[in-house]
Automatic annotation (TrEMBL), chain A:
<dbReference type="Pfam" id="PF00227">
    <property type="entry name" value="Proteasome"/>
</dbReference>
<keyword id="KW-0539">Nucleus</keyword>
<comment type="function">
    <text>Non-catalytic component of the proteasome.</text>
</comment>
<keyword id="KW-0647">Proteasome</keyword>
<dbReference type="GO" id="GO:0010499">
    <property type="term" value="P:proteasomal ubiquitin-independent protein catabolic process"/>
</dbReference>
<dbReference type="GO" id="GO:0043248">
    <property type="term" value="P:proteasome assembly"/>
</dbReference>
<dbReference type="GO" id="GO:0043161">
    <property type="term" value="P:proteasome-mediated ubiquitin-dependent protein catabolic process"/>
</dbReference>
<dbReference type="GO" id="GO:0005634">
    <property type="term" value="C:nucleus"/>
</dbReference>
<dbReference type="InterPro" id="IPR016295">
    <property type="entry name" value="Proteasome_beta4"/>
</dbReference>
UniProtKB/TrEMBL annotation, chain B:
<dbReference type="GO" id="GO:0062040">
    <property type="term" value="C:fungal biofilm matrix"/>
</dbReference>
<dbReference type="GO" id="GO:0034515">
    <property type="term" value="C:proteasome storage granule"/>
</dbReference>
<comment type="function">
    <text>The proteasome degrades poly-ubiquitinated proteins in the cytoplasm and in the nucleus. It is essential for the regulated turnover of proteins and for the removal of misfolded proteins. The proteasome is a multicatalytic proteinase complex that is characterized by its ability to cleave peptides with Arg, Phe, Tyr, Leu, and Glu adjacent to the leaving group at neutral or slightly basic pH. It has an ATP-dependent proteolytic activity.</text>
</comment>
<keyword id="KW-0963">Cytoplasm</keyword>
<keyword id="KW-0539">Nucleus</keyword>
<dbReference type="Pfam" id="PF10584">
    <property type="entry name" value="Proteasome_A_N"/>
</dbReference>
<dbReference type="InterPro" id="IPR001353">
    <property type="entry name" value="Proteasome_sua/b"/>
</dbReference>
<dbReference type="GO" id="GO:0005634">
    <property type="term" value="C:nucleus"/>
</dbReference>
<feature type="domain" description="Proteasome alpha-type subunits">
    <location>
        <begin position="6"/>
        <end position="28"/>
    </location>
</feature>
Length: 265, 233
C-alpha cells in the first residue's frame, strides 16, 4: 500500500505498476447539499406568564439583495401552535407543505381532531425535529433554523428550537440567526431564568420582542422593517398580528456625526 | 348436492352477499376461551380465563401489552393475535418516536380494522382467526374496543368474546350503570371477574387460570397474573 498522503491507500507502484486513476475517478458523486439561496433572517421568541410570543420579519433576501418583501415566515398549525422558520425559503415552503400534510393526516380517522386529539406544539416539534435530523443524516439538510411555539393542552407554554443539523434545545427565550446574538441578550434582561416567566406579563413580553425587532432592524443588514408577530395566550388563544412595523427609531444623533476622526465639518 | 360452492376463499361472495371464509374465521373466536372487557369513567379492565392443554402444561397467555397506555386480550388463534399485537406495538412506537404522541385508541382500532380488511379482499390469503378486546387510556379517557377479523372494530362499554361469552355479556348489559359509575380500579376489576364467572361451566377461577389487566388515569397498562390475582378471587 502507498503511504504517500496524496495517494494514500492505493496499491504501491513498485509492486503493482502505474495506478489507473480512471478507476476511482469514474464520476462526481450525487450531490444534494448546496447552499441556501433565498433566505429569511432571525426568528425571535419568548415565554411569558400566560403563553408565548414569537416574531419574524417579512423579508426573503437573495444574497445581499433584499428580493422579496412580503414573505410570511410564521406558520400557524391549528389554534395552538406557531412555527417560525429562518434560513432557506424554498425549504421553508417545503416545511409548510409538510405541516399541511400533517394537519390532513391528523384529521384522518380522528373523531376529535379539534379537541382531545388535536395537534399539539410538542407533536409538531417532534415531527419536525425527526425530519430535520433525518435529512441532515442523508447529507441533504433542510437549510433552516426553526422555532416551534405554542400552548400545550395542559396549558403549559411550549418553546423549542431545531435546526438543519437536527440540534434541538429549549429555553424561556429563543432566537435564530442574528437574533441569537442581538435579541437573546435583550430578552434575557427580562427573563433570565425559568422563575422570571411568572413575573412577565403579555404587555412586557410583547414590548420586549418589539424592541428586539427594532434592534435587529438597526443592525442586521438582511432584515426588514415589516414583520409579523404572533401571541399564543392560554386564555385568549392565537393572536396573529401581520403587517407590523418597526417604530420609534432614533436617528437624530446621526447629523452630529462627522467624518471618521479628524474631520470637523 | 347441498355443497357450498361459495366458501373456498375470501374473494368469493355468495349469492346472498356473504363472505363465508370470514364467517368461518369468526367461528374460530368462539373456540377460544372467554375474555371480558369493561370500562368506567376513569379505568378500563380486561379479565381473561386462561386455558391449559393438560395438567402438565402451562396456561396460554391471553393478555398482551402494546404500550404503556394500551393492551389487549385475545380469543381465537394466538399466533394471529401476536401478529396483530406486534403491529399495534409498532404503530404505538412510531407515534411516540415521530410525534411524541400516544397513539389514540380510536386510531389503533381503525388501523387494526384496515389491516384485517385487506385479508378479506385478496386471493391467496385468509382472514385473521382471532378476536381482540383492546383497552387503552388516551387524551379522551379510557376506551374499550372489540375487534373482529371481519374488520369490524366497535367501541363499547363492556364486552366479552370467546366460548360461552354470552353469559358475561348479558351480565355486563344488566349491570352497565353500576360499573360505569365505579371510581375505583379495584372495584372495576372485581365486577370484571364477576362477569367472567357468568361464562364458566366446569372450571373455577384460581390463581393459575385468571388473568387481569388494567389501565386508567393513574395506572399504566398493567397485567396481573398468578398470585397477584388472588385478592380478586
Amino acid at each position: 500500500m502507498n503511504h504517500d498522503p496524496f495517494s494514500w491507500g492505493r496499491p504501491s507502484e513498485q509492486t503493482y505498476g502505474q495506478y489507473d486513476h480512471s478507476i476511482a475517478q469514474a464520476s462526481i458523486p450525487k450531490m444534494n447539499t448546496q447552499d441556501p439561496i433565498v433566505t429569511g433572517t432571525s426568528v425571535i421568541s419568548m415565554k411569558y406568564n400566560n403563553g408565548v410570543v414569537i416574531a419574524a420579519d417579512n423579508l426573503a433576501a437573495y444574497g445581499s439583495l433584499l428580493r422579496f418583501n412580503g414573505v410570511e415566515r410564521l406558520i400557524p398549525v391549528g389554534e395552538n401552535t406557531i412555527v417560525g422558520v429562518s434560513g432557506d425559503v424554498s425549504d421553508m415552503q417545503h416545511i409548510e407543505y409538510l405541516l399541511d400534510e400533517m394537519k390532513i393526516e391528523n384529521n384522518y380517522d380522528n373523531s376529535s381532531p379539534d379537541d382531545e386529539e388535536a395537534l399539539q406544539p410538542s407533536y409538531v416539534f417532534e415531527y419536525l425535529a425527526a425530519v430535520m435530523y433525518q435529512r441532515r443524516s442523508k447529507m441533504d439538510p433542510l437549510w433552516n433554523a426553526v422555532i416551534v411555539a405554542g400552548i400545550e393542552k395542559d396549558g403549559s407554554p411550549f418553546l423549542r428550537y431545531v435546526n438543519l443539523l437536527g440540534v434541538t434545545y429549549s429555553s424561556p427565550t429563543l432566537a435564530t440567526g442574528f437574533g441569537a446574538h442581538l435579541a437573546i441578550p435583550l430578552l434575557r434582561r427580562v427573563i433570565d431564568k425559568e422563575t422570571d416567566i411568572e413575573k412577565t406579563d403579555l404587555a412586557l413580553a410583547e414590548q420586549t420582542i418589539r424592541e428586539s425587532m427594532k434592534v435587529l432592524f438597526y443592525r442586521d443588514a438582511r432584515s426588514s422593517k415589516k414583520y409579523s408577530l404572533a401571541i399564543i395566550d392560554k386564555d385568549k388563544g392565537l393572536m396573529f398580528k401581520q403587517n407590523q412595523e418597526v417604530e420609534n427609531m432614533s436617528w437624530k444623533f446621526a447629523k452630529d456625526i462627522k467624518g471618521y476622526g479628524t474631520q470637523k465639518i | 348436492m347441498f355443497r357450498n360452492n361459495y366458501d373456498g376463499d375470501t374473494v368469493t361472495f355468495s349469492p346472498t352477499g356473504r363472505l363465508f371464509q370470514v364467517e368461518y374465521a369468526l367461528e374460530a373466536i368462539k373456540q377460544g376461551s372467554v375474555t371480558v372487557g369493561l370500562r368506567s369513567k376513569d379505568y378500563a379492565v380486561l379479565v381473561a380465563l386462561k386455558r391449559n392443554a393438560d395438567e402438565l402444561s402451562s396456561y396460554q397467555k391471553k393478555i398482551i401489552k402494546c404500550d404503556e397506555h394500551m393492551g389487549l386480550s385475545l380469543a381465537g388463534l394466538a399466533p394471529d393475535a401476536r401478529v396483530l399485537s406486534n403491529y399495534l406495538r409498532q404503530q404505538c412506537n412510531y407515534s411516540q418516536l415521530v410525534y411524541n404522541r400516544k397513539l389514540s385508541v380510536e386510531k389503533a382500532g381503525h388501523m387494526l380494522c384496515d389491516k384485517a380488511q385487506k385479508n378479506t379482499q385478496s386471493y391467496g390469503g385468509r382472514p385473521y382467526g382471532v378476536g381482540l378486546l383492546i383497552i387503552g387510556y388516551d387524551n379522551s379517557g379510557p376506551h374499550l374496543l372489540e375487534f373482529q377479523p371481519s374488520g369490524n372494530t366497535l367501541e363499547v362499554y363492556g364486552s366479552a368474546i370467546g366460548a360461552r361469552s354470552q353469559g358475561a355479556k348479558t351480565y355486563l348489559e344488566r349491570v352497565l350503570d353500576d360499573y360505569l359509575a365505579i371510581t375505583d380500579a379495584t372495584e372495576l376489576i372485581k365486577s370484571g371477574v364477576e362477569a367472567l364467572r357468568q361464562s364458566l361451566k366446569d372450571e373455577t377461577l384460581n390463581t393459575d387460570n385468571l388473568s387481569i389487566a388494567v389501565v386508567g388515569k393513574d395506572i399504566p397498562f398493567t397485567i396481573y397474573d398468578g398470585e397477584s390475582v388472588s385478592q380478586y378471587l
